[in-house]
Design brief:
Elements (H helix, E strand, L loop, with lengths): L2 E5 L2 E3 L5 E8 L8 E6 L6 E6 L6 E3 L7 E6 L4 E6 L8 E7 L3 E2 L3 E5 L2
Length: 113
């Protein structure tokens, strides 16, 4: 069965960095576009970034452009989200997604001084 396991969240000060990982299994990862979403407290879940199966293209939410980078390692069936210059408004639970239907358990990112 499809499994997505996120890790790497935590508490970081404004301006800091974190790298999230999502280990995937149960499907042909190398053929799948993968995405990261986030959901802040009291907010709707929103798309943060999406990457094509061959890493040839990526798209980002306007709010994170220039600060976040999505990448993947098909040999490790893992997708990453490098987050730099973090802001308090980036505080949210971050979720990995496959095929629009499968979600990981999420990892909490808190940006606070």
């Amino acid at each position: 069965q499809v499994q997505l396991v996120e890790s790497g969240g935590g508490l970081v000060q404004p301006g800091g960095s974190l790298r999230l990982s999502c280990a995937a299994s149960g499907f042909t990862f190398s053929r799948a576009a993968m995405s990261w979403y986030r959901q802040g407290s009291g907010k709707e879940r929103e798309l943060v970034a999406i990457i094509s199966s061959d890493s040839g293209s990526a798209r980002y939410a306007d709010s994170v452009k220039g600060r976040f980078t999505i990448s993947r390692d098909n040999a490790k069936t893992t997708v990453y989200l490098q987050m730099n210059s973090l802001k308090p408004e980036d505080t949210a639970v971050y979720y990995c997604n496959y095929n629009g239907a499968y979600w990981g358990q999420g990892t909490q990112v808190t940006v606070s001084s």
